[in-house]
Each structure stands twice: as structure tokens, then as C-alpha cells.
Known about the structure:
45% of the residues lie in helices and 16% in strands. The chain contains 9 helices and 7 strands, in the order αβαααααβαβαβαβββ.
Amino acid sequence: xxxxxxxxxxxxxxxxxxxxxxxxxxxxxxxxxxxxxxxxxxxxxxxxxxxxxxxxxxxxxxxxxxxxxxxxxxxxxxxxxxxxxxxxxxxxxxxxxxxxxxxxxxxxxxxxxxxxxxxxxxxxxxxxxxxxxxxxxxxxxxxxxxxxxxxxxxxxxxxxxxxxxxxxxxxxxxxxxxxxxxxxxxxxxxxxxxxxxxxxxxxxxxxxxxxxxxxxxxxxxxxxxxxxxxxxxxxxxxxxxxxx
Length: 244
């Protein structure tokens, strides 16, 4: 073991002994906030689940249930990747261009019929966004299709609050990296707010803070877990935020 490795191990042990989030700071101290969309700004997870199952309705229920479990465990990933996973790893069939176009069309049909509804905006989050967009730089990085995402945000009256809105097919981690580069964001002053482990990974891979929301499975990772935006209440995560 090298001297540097000894120092690293000692540093991690000391941080753990002194308690979690030794250097954690309040969410509003971050100058730039990057929001996931589904489940954070819009109550959309159930509708997208319904859209996936509708688009794949011709396949066996056992395959659909396996896919549903995969889908729910992998928030923040685009529909294109998820459909490819279904065909490659679950039913083990080729996804032809014609079939992909058909299932995407069926998926979009449900989304357009049910998500274009202002009642689905999560008011807790929206109030926070409305109160902070003039003092902070706000962004959206989502696994939703970018064209649809921007159209939906325009319909919901959300565009004015965000400096940039990015979606798939570009992976979320790459969209986060793009925002950091384009807007010269300081990593130590930037945080991502999400409801999935993939959101956490996107933050981690870009060296920025992560705050979980609307998914209690995220309570023990990142810089804190948001139990409420209005009023703002964050539970500290009970672990040391040193990434190996």
C-alpha cells in the first residue's frame, strides 16, 4: 500500500468518525440547480409506466412484469434504451426500425393524452422553483425525449424558469456535463435534484452534489434527502460522502 493510499484511508476514517456530511451545505447555497423532471417536477412516473406497458401490450404478461420492474428501478433512462433492453435482454428478439417506430408511436399516444395536464405539476417543487429562479440558475436534465420534454414544459408554463432544458436520446450524465461546460458552472456550486439512483450516478460522474427527492430509497446517498421543498426541509444522509 502506498503512502497516498494510507492518507486516503485515514482521511475517510476520520470523516466517518466525525459524522456524516461534514462539509454539507444547504441546498440554496448552491448557485446552480439541475432538476430531473418526472417525479420531481411532474407527477409522471405512473403515466410513463402505463405508456410502456401499452406500447408492449402484445407481449406475454410475464415479460411485461419483468420489464416493469426494470423500468421502475431505472428512472432517468430514456425510453429508447428501455425498449432496447426489453427486446435484447427480456424477449431476446431483434428490435427492427419498423417495430421501434410503432411502439414509440403507441408510447407517445398515452403520454400526449395524459401528461399534458397542469394538475400534474408537483406544487411543492413548483413553489420552490418560482421562488428561486431569479436568484439561482435552474436547469432541467431528464431522461424524457427532448422534443417532447420542451413541448410539455411550454404547455405547462415552465420554460421561463429554466436557462436550459435537455432530454434524451443524449444520456443524462452527458447532458449534465454539457450544462456545466456551456454555462461555466462551478462543480462545487452545482447540485442535481433527482428521484432515481441513475440521477445520483449522473451527479457523481460529473463531480457535483446530489439531493434525492420523492423516493425514500435515496435517503442514504448524496448530500441530503429533500422531504419537502415548501418549506424546504432536508434530512442529512447518514454516511460519508467520499466516493471511491
